[in-house]
């Protein structure tokens, strides 16, 4: 058995999987995990703060981790070479039982149930002469491997014994298993190094559960050892061998491969190969390309995109709700209550890119592979379709064997009969080809016809629609923009990034791509049904591009405004009481004056929370600034106040008799956080309520012990818009049209062929009509009698025949 066959044998593949798992478990052991930060710092030359901040080069960290892994793989591989040589001394079933029991014994020792203290001791080899940074990563890894080999003794000893106990063991096999074990131990070093700034929770999780990992790995090794001792291991290997043994020889080594001897040479044929042949990189790429261009692969990639969409729905996305993502990462919300799945799970989600699914590298990889797969699927099919369409209908042979067959007689000569049949099929839109006796497979003149290519054409158009759909979605995601803005009557905004709430910009949509036009809400009108439900609301806006182009538009639900290739959708609306807070007596500049947009509450009421003052010094005009704490108001507006059963209600949705209830909060309200004020309310206590007032229009009320007065000036209305730029909309529309255009012929069209041959008969010509359907044979069986009937009417029958 050659090296390639040995490495790809099912026996060693199964053992390699166990070895890799044992390496990962060894990494989680109590004597390795606590040392990860120190080793990462030493082998990269970076401080712990630089690693935690995430500002260090990931390429540098990954390079250091790879060199470190290769360093400690050297002593492990040498041990594997040495241990596996024992196979030549330990032949026979008896030794396999003994070595299997040894693997099980080492597995039990890994769980801690057996007091193998010698295997659990560590011998740390230190060398202060090793340079910090990448130059020292390789020797540092070697020192790690020599010094910590006793620490991970039970797991490593079990893997070395496994290399010896496996049937067909050799020095190469032992080296392979030991090297794979080193990869299992080293790969977590690389991954945690690259993601160290986001993996603190994972490190803590590994420290807390190190014992569980040890026990689980020990149980796995115990099961493998018992399987070797009882012979079950060989049965599993025999069952797996057919799954990986179906490779064929793609490349031959002229120095080692043999070719079957020609017949008659007298030389015996070489024995068959025992294992599969490892193909080269070029052939591997060709195999991958053949797999990728299959429609089944495209469907799997589509399924992957669907799964990613589900993940994006279940996990909060940072571009949409960054506040929630920040709370999940911290594990607590604004009020200090636990939120999310926990910091350890959140760090894993962050490392996997689940907080920004549609911007993650793996999602972009899926999309790229899907485009490549669809391209590889469609282009060859288009070429084949074009070839088939250009190819003239082929002549038919053995027509007597076809079930759809009819014989007609006519007084017309053979050439005239074929011409009449040609006219009939032309009216029925068949593609036709006249064959002379020399070219016809039957040796008689023949008319070959076919129809139904649009079934395959429709299928191509249908699949092309998905390609166009993906392009449209991708264009919209890369160059699109969506933002929301609320405007009070008379107010406006400029199309810049800072003007929007929850802006969502495509990856290639920059700040300079905003059109900087100004939108002003001139008027807002709402109408109601008799039961008080809104029947219509209209926003009248003016749009100005700053260069003299002004447009006035009315925006309704499902009737957006359009300006500078940007659409404005009517999204929501509400009441906005105009509140003024000024010094007592009405003298001096107002302390606060604004129309506050409120959200809908129960029973035609409106409520909301608003920042008033973020704290600090305020100049009241007297020349002596005053130090004021943070202030906020919690408002509830009753548009048409009335009383029912001792409770204040709103009799109608119109602001005919507005009453505003306000709670004024003072103190440390956390208003400097960049979150909506409503999200901070749960953290405010009753002791921070400084005043409670009831306001009516034009009636100032003193607050804060008479230091200020608060007044409800008027009740305005506000309108909310969604501003969108969707450059891929036309492609999405085209994809929808293509879906219908491709679906209809795919459902109703089918491929069929028809042949008409003529031969001279007594008193006239005998016409044979035969056909076959490649799809939907039942439909052709219904269509064939109609074709025969048309031909019978076009061909004058012979006397005594019909």
Summarize the structure.
With 802 residues, the chain is of the alpha+beta class. The longest helix is centred in the middle third of the chain and has 30 residues, at 361-390.
Structure write-up:
The protein is built from 22 helices and 25 strands. Residues 1-8, 87-93, 116-133, 146-153 and 240-265 have low confidence and may be disordered. The strands form six sheets. Strands 4, 6, 10, 11, 12, 22 and 23 form a seven-stranded antiparallel β-sheet that branches. It starts with a helix and ends in an 8-residue tail after the last helix. It is an alpha+beta fold and 802 residues long. The longest helix has 30 residues, at 361-390.
What is the topological layout?
Blueprint: H1 3-7, H2 10-27, H3 36-44, H4 48-53, H5 58-84, H6 93-111, H7 117-120, H8 137-148, H9 153-165, H10 171-194, H11 200-208, H12 210-230, H13 232-244, H14 281-292, H15 295-314, H16 322-330, H17 343-352, H18 361-390, E1 404-410, H19 414-427, E2 431-435, E3 446-451, H20 454-479, E4 481-488, E5 492-494, E6 501-505, E7 518-528, E8 534-544, E9 550-555, E10 561-563, E11 566-583, E12 592-595, E13 599-600, E14 606-613, E15 616-618, E16 626-628, E17 630-638, E18 641-644, E19 647-650, E20 659-667, E21 689-695, E22 701-703, E23 708-725, H21 729-748, E24 752-761, E25 764-773, H22 777-794
Antiparallel strand pairs: 1-25, 2-3, 3-24, 4-6, 4-23, 5-7, 7-8, 8-9, 10-11, 11-12, 11-23, 13-14, 14-17, 15-16, 17-20, 18-19, 20-21, 22-23, 24-25
Helix pairs in contact: 2-9, 2-10, 2-12, 5-8, 5-9, 5-10, 6-9, 6-12, 9-10, 9-12, 11-17, 15-18, 18-20, 19-22, 20-21
